[in-house]
Amino acid sequence: MTDLLQRFSQKYAHICSLSSIGQSVEGRELWVMRITTNPTTDLPGKPRFKYVGNIHGDEALSRQLLVYLIEYLLTQYGRDLRVTELVHRTDIYILASMNPDGFERAVEGDCTGSSEGRENAKHFDLNKSFPDKDEPFSKTSEDTPEVTAVMKWILEKKFVLSGSLHEGSVMASFPSDDGSSYATSGLTADDAVFRHLAQTYIENHPIMKMDNPGCPDDPNKHFGGGEMEEYNYLKGNCFEVTLELSCCKYPPASQLFVEWTNNKEALLAYIHQAHIGVRGFVMTRSGFGLPDATISISGSDRNITTWMFGDYYRLLLPGRYDITASSPGYLSNTVKNVPVIEGKATLLNFTLEEPVEEMLLLDSSEQPLVANGGLSTPAPPIPRSPIHTLDFRHHSYDEMEMFLQLLSAVHPSITYLNSAGQSVQGRNLYVMEISTNPGVDQQGKPEVMFLGNMHGNEFIGREILLNLIEYLCRNYGKDPLVTHLVNSTRIHIMPSVNPDGYELALKAHKELVSGDLSIIGHDNSHRVDLNADFPEQSRLGNTVEAETQAVINWIKAHFFVLSASIRGGFRGVVYPSSIDSVDEDMFKSVAEAYYVQSQAFEEPQACDVPRTREKKGIKHHRPVATGTDMLTWAYRSTDTLAVHIGLSCELLPAEELLSEYWEQNHGALLHFIEQVHSFVRGVVTDGHSGKCIANATVMVKDSSHHVHTSSTGQYWRPLAPGSYHITASAPGYTPMSASVRVLETPLEQVDFKLTRDTLQPSVEEAEQKDFEKLVEWLLAPGELDQLIRSLLPAQTLQYRTYRERSEFLRGLTFNFPRITRLYSLGQSTEFRTIWALEIAGNLEIPQPAEPKIRFVAGVHGNAAVGPELLLEFASVLCLNYGRNPAITKLINRSRILILPCVNPDGREQAQEGFCLSSVGYTNAHGIDLDTDFFYGNSSTQPETRAVMDLIYGGGFSLSVVLEGGSLLATYPYDKPNQHAQNEETLRYLASLYASNHPFMHLGNLRCTEKSEDIPGGILKGADFSTHTGSMKDFSLDVGICPEITVYTGCCMFPSESHLFSMWMENKLPLFRMLLEVHRRLRGVVRDSKGRPVSDAVVVVNGSVNLHADSQGHFTTLVAPGTHQLLVQAHGYQQELQQVNISSDKVTSPILIDFTADSAPLSQGVFAIATASLMSVLICGLLIWHLRSAKFSRIRDGVRWLRRKRDVLQMEAVASEKSPLRQEFPDDSESEDDPFLVEGH
Hints:
- The chain is built from 33 helices and 48 strands.
- The chain is an alpha/beta fold and 1240 residues long.
- The strands form ten sheets. Strands 34-35-37-36-38-41-39-40 form an eight-stranded mixed sheet, sandwiched between helices. A seven-stranded mixed sheet has the order 1-2-4-3-5-7-6, with helices on both faces. A seven-stranded mixed sheet has the order 18-19-21-20-22-24-23, with helices on both faces.
- It comes from Cirrhinus molitorella (mud carp).
């Protein structure tokens, strides 16, 4: 076992570490395998869980099963979603053999065991050797060193949950459930929690849940004090359940596979229970965790205490509780009515105040309310000055590390802590990102960067930035400015670039070492000044220090708008020495803003730098070096404009002065962040497709500093007020320029729509062509099936309760955050969340070329197969993203929405194995949801309303709904006597699913004794089950999205063993429908100048009307064949095109250009002609009256006018709205009409 565990620890070192907690009597190691991310470091925010096996040496099965469990967790990490989630979220410890000496004397095949193997080498029963609650501990470490080691381990780790594994029976037991006298000592305070924990294991064990294992009585088994589970509960904060796994204590090896199969699910499910109840932190006002603080629950006398970081985990069942946190020297804090929900721990943080006189005098009515997980409770008053909330002192590296980890754990929604690299001596260069949805490039959010401690002996930069991190975290949601900045900006802070130098300088400072403190710790461990270590552009192949390289990589991985290095030893804002005049004005503006906002520069000091360029300011601070300084490098080589901000004349200011420096500068630092929203910004897009262009270059005339667009096509360019000429360019596109005048207003938006250079092929075009070839390859016979067979299986098929389904979906988004997003569409009648899972390669910015497909299940709760098939489908997509090129490209160019269960209330009521039962068919109000989709119905069910809102605003190309109770596919309409305009396409889509199903296309239902034959396995919905208010009808009429309903099998709720075969039957058609949306008809409508026509209507085959979007794009699914497109738009001539759609080819986008914008010209001509002819007519009549000309001449003149009218009408035949049509009479009018004028 030792050799195997050591091999595991070497092979899987990234998620496990092996250590010994002590030795047995005979000197054998008590090996513990720790399995979690960062397995060699204690981190806050993870509950600690343990399994202990082989406590009795002759009970050998538990030892081997725990070795199997170790191997399973290690090998399935990254492959099995549940395992990956467990390892990420839990700190798992496994002691496979607590009694290795006894095991060596045990005999394989001995099911009843013996005292010789049961006890340790000193003949003590280890499970009965723990100190009894009522008696002093009588055992010595020489008698039971195993117990001594485990007791120390329990007290040190403060485990949340534990399982003690035994054999000799098949059952689960816990303190006081054996009817002993423990009930009088408080052990029953958590009786319900213990029963839930035990029941969790029992329900997942096929033999144990039968409650009749038939095991013979164990003569060695007896109840009494001194057991390990009792010690865990009373002394160690830990709930422990004793799990008896098998009747046979040491079964032969041939039975191990069966025993592993019986226990695997139960072992995993039990670990999950460490995440129920309430969790959080108990902190001081300065934000530091309070270890050993007490957490008490009203009505229970069993308290727990916090761990080293101040974090706690209290297992509780669903309900509402009054919870109190207390610690000696602090005022206790009670939160009442805390809700605990099923399956997920409620987050509840406490801040404890010291009992100062000011608080006693405060009127309680002035106390603000702080929300904790939806709770409102009076909070400590927020001081007027921000300095009183922070901790001002010199932090060692270890203290800084713990401080950052704690803040990250307490504020997970706005922080992302990572390491940009390591120092020469191996210390992490931590970076804290503070923003909503941190770690993700987001539309509209500029990035700003701070770094400190570039010189290790410049303490002030490091400490002020730690204060800034804490201030932003603690005041988010309380201070309006902080909340605005965090919501709208990605703030990156590296508090220590040179941790090695800092540790050396800190030691010298504390020990009062003689020597020049301005030198000690200034450089890194290789005695290199990091600020002079950045590469020169003209010197290729420069080698730089590890810290410098980490900073370079970090800056180049982002698109920082402004950057600041916080320094000591001088005061003032310093910028690069060699810059263009355009940017010098900008730097001066940034510097002046800092001086105005800071309180530190009201009185000058000797170390103040002149408010000019660096070469005139701190020339004496720049060492002689072969490299260049960071500011110059950043200006020449990156997007950011960087400055040094010196805060103090002292390099190592005294701790008592730190609060003063923070008070003077924190407002200016916040304003520095705010400034990134005051410049020129914009988006660079493809003028044809509207897609964002990443890494486009944005240049300002007379400046050599160029910026580039991020992955979302955004750019920010800091510029001082004035007029500028800006140009955007990208490979394959014609550059575009714009003039802009920057004022004092907060923002100037300058967007660029680039047109492609016809002489250079676009990268996007090449990628699109490659993708089209991939789709056509997969459409070839047998290729898609071959691809699916090669995919990594998810193997997650099982029926899940609502809680399990919710946790599974959260696990997917946790493990695949780049391509998944989980959100709520609403809540069911019984307030269960209706989840939607979105899978896409670019979640943040939908692209016009991305088709959107919807997969839905669980409209009827008793159709239980559909939800599990969709979860398996989602898992396979996620697991193979990045592993399989075809799947990766499909996800990158698709937007897949999976709605696994529309009716979670009905699903909870349905029963496995009941094929024809109607239990769970309706929602909790007894409504069939598929009859409730009526547009404008105010009494719609909440489940229906949630889905209707999704359909109405979705822009989907196709929807597939999985149902049960039959074996066929149906298409709209479900309502009677209704004919769909595109019925040919709808029928084709249904046949596409059926033809890829191994049995559905045969058309023989075989679901009743009276067999029915349905050609091709497809039917119109009304021919199968006619009804109104169906989802597919609503989707087609309101959502303009074709929807088919697939009935996956005759049984509504078959046994779980059938799920695998049903997945094998349906996985190919599911993938085929995903492929189908890429075979759609699509195009763009433009005018003669290439501008999109947003109000164009494309009429397909004279019946289906498609409306172009704002970029002129239109798309629809059509059956293979020849189709006629009539394109119309107000003010334009209509265009007619014919297109051929193939079943195994991708149709290239159709480009429709209106060749003549004739309406405005025609109307202008008609207006002029009308005025002219009326003038001529009036003049003619006047002349006739004045001169009494002959009648024949008048009639000839009128005939001439009519001939001119006919000529003009021929020229204006294209326009039906000519103003002249109202001025001239019809051709049927008599030539004698003019005589009426004379007569009158």
